[in-house]
Please model this.
Amino acid sequence: MKSLLLATFRQALEEAHPYRLTLRALPKARPHLILAVGKGAAWMLKAALDRYGEVPYHLTLPKGQDALGLRAVFAGHPLPDGESLRAAQEVLELLKGLSPKARVLALVSGGGSALWCLPLGISLEAKRALTEALLKSGASIREINAVRKHLSQVKGGRLLKATQARLHVLLLADVPGDDPGVIASGPFHPDSSTYLEALAVLDRYGLAFPEARRVLEEGLRGRFPETLKPQDPALKRLSYRIVGRNLDLLKAAQGFLRRQGYRAVILSDRFGGEARALARFHAELVETLCAHGLPFKKPLFLLSGGEAQVQVRGKGRG
Model:
């Protein structure tokens, strides 16, 4: 059984490999610039360069990751660092210098929120401390991103607003619901959250952070611009495609198991909530299935995906 589970896992990963997913989704027109960020960025960029040949690019990866021989900025993840600041500033300057006729291909995957970090109105140290507190608080990724977007010069569609170029974005979705505005905190996509909602998140989890609160309150009063909203005309210059999703990975695993002669059921690709509650749900489901054959009859494989939150206490890592 262990060998079957490992084989299923490996097959699903192979079918959902960033190189393969990106290569088949690339637009025909050769871009003038490629921006790649996230945990899948190196393979996504390699696919693009294999297709288009030499194109100017900027690649940002988590520290310690293999760059596949490509030139890269290695930045902090899940907490931003000085290299995150450098990477975001470089990308912002590249985009500002482009003409309306320029075509930019952006390759975005999970982790981009930390890897491109250019705080708005607060220090990097304050942003890092707040991010760490949010990650340990049990806040959802949407709540965390609502705060991060409103304390950033690049998130929440601000990179799109900073350039006149046309952008085509390929995304690897790592969040339940596959919302492009949530993946990497949506540097090119509209954001429905507000300064008021960001403040509410801090209140909900009892986070003081006076420096961040000051910026959010000043944004609420109009001193800082809001994030990109769905009606903004800048969106006419944006096209995008989600090339890989959690559901694709689950379907790949399901298909492999079925080819081996097993029944496999996908419960959901959108599980969320506290990790212990999710564990209890899955355990109770298996107990009921084994005892009564409900809601499914065994033997079968149960597949599920999503993103759990943890509330860290003491010195735990989460």
